[in-house]
Amino acid sequence: MQIDIVALLIGAPLVAIVGSQTGYLIGAKFGVKLFDRPDGRIFNQKKVKATEKWLKKYGTGKALVLARFIPFVRTLINPMCGIVGVPAKKFFFWNCVGAVLWTDGVIIAGYYLGEKLEGSVDKYLLPVVGLIILVSVAPVAIEILREWRTKRHLS
User: Fold this and answer.
1) pLDDT tens track for 90-148
2) Is 24 within 8 Å of 82 (Cβ atoms)?
3) CA–CA dist 115, 45 (Å, integer)
4) Are 149 and 132 in the same domain?
5) Other beta carbons within 10 Å of 38
6) Are residues 87 and 136 in the same domain?
7) Are residues 55 and 124 in the same domain?
8) Any idea what DSSP says for residue 121?
9) Does 136 lie in the same domain as 66?
10) What domain range is 54 assigned to?
11) How far apart are CA 132 and CA 138, in angstroms?
């Protein structure tokens, strides 16, 4: 099956933008209820404060664009921006910039690497995909392990 690269370069950022905007709106509308609990594993005040600090340190634009390239952070940054009150227009602008850079950057890199590695995909690409999956899942696994160890220690 052949996918038109132009359609992909247009469609992927649009889908990424919609997904991030949804996260932002959920954070803006329901975030206080989700993050108000001090003991939440993923949603808690500590993460809200860390996000505020990160946004102040790097600025909203740089933080949103950089977050796209960091597994797990890219998922949480959107609702966090809604919670901490990043203005909607500012979020939308930087969300669009980050979505285009991230999705189209990955697509273009994959396109050219695919041409260069033609016939060698199984040899080179599959281990890279495996590593990406491992790196993406690691933060969640570490957090779950920490939570489990803390609960086990307290009981």
Assistant:
1) 999 999 999 999 999 999 988 887 777 776 666 776 787 788 888 877 777 787 788 78
2) yes
3) 46
4) yes
5) 8
6) no
7) no
8) I
9) no
10) 5-116
11) 10
